[in-house]
Design a protein that fits this description.
5-stranded mixed β-sheet; 14 strands; 37% helix; globular
Length: 345
């Protein structure tokens, strides 16, 4: 199986697994005979060999997850604090992770690092420019300041990229090698995965698709505009988190918001399909899933109305609704990046 999946020779696979086993990251299991030749030995990941923490920081919510080497979420917690202060929230994240590891009888030295996903765009390799609600996270080298504070390896990513990785690990994205995850929250962005690899772009800002809308004369879909529309119709929500927790598709203003933004979503999905040619477009982020389903089901691909050349259209792209909890996808993806950067690079 490993030889077939990796394209490596049997000798190369044997040496690699031997090194991983010596490092305590995997263990050999039972042998399985399949066809002619020597029986194959199964290889199992040692889940407790390494752990990572992933933190997602949005305008009004922050979450942390503890993930083991097998990709299992061993614990998760909301670490939101008023004003979204950086240092105490990060201290809370690490304290939570170490508590969970201690409760499981795992040596704290197996914590390999912290992945941080922030809602904002990069202006330098480890420096993001988020919304005004996250001033404490803005325009500082997060790799340097967080590493100095916590004494751990740190990986910094934007929220859409991290959520795309998380959805591909444990959500509907696991069925696809190439996908674009559309992250709808207070802002709007996307994470692009091509042949299983995150496509970050030159500056880490691949997928900053919000700029497509103003330049094309269309409204930008996000949850702030939804919150405003609901308020205009007398639905009082204290913020995005409150709106999501109590969301009701029957609220007045929902249909108006859908009608206003449907052209933007149709334009976006057609643009992404024609430029990326990926297997699936996945609508997610903090968008309530019942609302996402309404949007996806109403998409009308423009090429359906075009003449058909030689009775064949281009291969279709699947349009899906994310299945992973929005508060899990981002931190899970951020945690996975720690393993990629510290163990597998």
């Amino acid at each position: 199986m490993l030889i077939r999946e990796t394209g490596l020779s049997g000798t190369a696979v044997f040496r690699a697994t031997e090194e991983l086993e010596a490092a305590g990251l995997v263990r050999g299991g039972e042998t399985i005979a399949s066809g002619r030749g020597q029986p194959s030995t199964t290889i199992h990941i040692q889940p407790d060999a390494a752990f990572s923490l992933g933190v997602s920081v949005m305008t009004d919510r922050a979450d942390v997850v503890l993930v083991d080497l097998a990709g299992t979420v061993r614990g998760r917690r909301d670490i939101t604090l008023p004003g979204m202060p950086r240092a105490p929230m990060l201290d809370a994240a690490v304290a939570f992770g170490l508590e969970q590891m201690a409760a499981a009888g795992v040596d704290r030295r197996r914590l390999r690092g912290l992945g941080v996903a922030v809602a904002g765009y990069f202006v330098a390799p480890f420096t993001v420019n988020p919304g005004h609600e996250l001033d404490d996270w803005a325009l500082v080298d997060l790799h340097e300041v967080i590493g100095r504070q916590l004494g751990l390896p740190v990986v910094v990513e934007n929220i859409a990229n991290a959520a795309a990785l998380g959805e591909r690990m444990l959500g509907i994205g696991a069925a696809y090698e190439s996908l674009c995850y559309v992250n709808v929250a207070a802002g709007f962005g996307a994470g692009i995965i091509v042949d299983g690899t995150l496509m970050r772009g030159r500056h880490g800002n691949a997928g900053e698709i919000a700029g497509l809308f103003p330049s094309s004369g269309r409204v930008t879909p996000n949850l702030v505009t939804l919150l405003d529309r609901l308020s205009e119709h007398g639905v009082a929500c204290s913020g995005i988190s409150d709106m999501i927790a109590r969301f009701d598709l029957r609220w007045p203003g929902i249909e108006e918001w859908l009608a206003e933004h449907r052209p933007s979503f149709s334009y976006l999905f057609s643009t992404l399909r024609m430029t990326l040619d990926c297997e699936a477009l996945i609508l997610g982020g903090r968008l309530p899933r019942v609302l996402a389903r309404r949007i996806v089901d109403a998409i009308d691909w423009p090429e359906r109305h075009w003449p058909v050349r030689r009775e064949h259209r281009a291969p279709p792209t699947s349009l899906e609704v994310a299945t992973l909890d929005p508060e899990l996808a981002g931190p899970l993806g951020a945690a996975s990046l720690v393993f990629h950067r510290t163990l597998f690079d």
